[in-house]
Amino acid sequence: MQDADATEDEQAVLIKQYFGSVGRDVCLCPGFMCDSGKNIHVGDQFLANYNVTILDIMPVRIGNYVMIGPNTLITTVNHPITPKGRREHLGIGKPVTIGNDVWIGGNVTILPGVTIGSNVVIAAGAVVTKDVPDNCVVGGVPAKKIKNIENDV
């Protein structure tokens, strides 16, 4: 999506053309991929590091001050577990919502239907299969709450 030689202003124009809505100071590093982009809504000071993929057949809403580490996948699409359903190429879509002040480490996978609260840190390599409450660190496969963190803003 991004031209490596584009200026910050040129990149901002491109992002606004592709995404459903965009806040201020948004940065996508090279290698960003998505299904359509129109279902992606990001707030102010959003950063998607290298090789982030967002499969957005359903809405993906991301708050302000969110940083996504490299090689992360956010997906809103799943498929049936039965062979018949998979042979029919059926898709099951569920939206993903991410709050404000979230840091998602590298190589994280966020599955369909997940809501991540505000002031959350997701440890590198985590697979987020369930909702995450505000003010905590989660990690592991599947991701589990590791500890609470202070909200100092």
What does this structure look like?
With 153 residues, the chain is mainly beta. It has a single domain, classed as Hexapeptide repeat proteins (UDP N-Acetylglucosamine Acyltransferase, domain 1, 3 Solenoid), CATH 2.160.10.10. Helix content is 10%, strand content 33%. The chain has two helices and 19 strands. The protein has helices at residues 8-18, 83-87; strands at 21-22, 27-28, 33-34, 40-42, 47-48, 53-55, 60-62, 67-68, 73-75, 77-78, 92-93, 96-98, 102-104, 109-110, 115-116, 120-122, 127-128, 136-139, 144-148. The protein has a seven-stranded mixed beta sheet with strand order 2-5-8-13-16-18-19. Strands 1-4-7-12-15 form a five-stranded parallel beta sheet, with no helix packed on it.
Short description:
This protein is mostly beta strands and 153 residues long.
SSE layout and pairings?
Blueprint: H1 8-18, E1 21-22, E2 27-28, E3 33-34, E4 40-42, E5 47-48, E6 53-55, E7 60-62, E8 67-68, E9 73-75, E10 77-78, H2 83-87, E11 92-93, E12 96-98, E13 102-104, E14 109-110, E15 115-116, E16 120-122, E17 127-128, E18 136-139, E19 144-148
Parallel strand pairs: 1-4, 2-5, 3-6, 4-7, 5-8, 6-9, 7-12, 8-13, 9-14, 12-15, 13-16, 14-17, 16-18
Antiparallel strand pairs: 10-11, 18-19
Please, what is the oligomeric state? single chain
**Overall geometric form:** globular
- Unreliable residue runs: none
Total strand count, please? 19
Report the β-strand fraction as a percent range.
25-35%
- Main CATH class: Mainly Beta
Secondary structure category: mainly beta
Main pleated-sheet profile: 7 strands, mixed
The CATH architecture comes to 3 Solenoid
Q: What is the residue-mean pLDDT, rounded to a whole number?
A: 94
Sequence of secondary-structure elements: HEEEEEEEEEEHEEEEEEEEE
The end-to-end distance, rounded to whole angstroms, is 33 Å
Q: Tell me the CATH superfamily.
A: Hexapeptide repeat proteins
Approximate helicity band:
10-25%
The fold-level CATH name is: UDP N-Acetylglucosamine Acyltransferase, domain 1
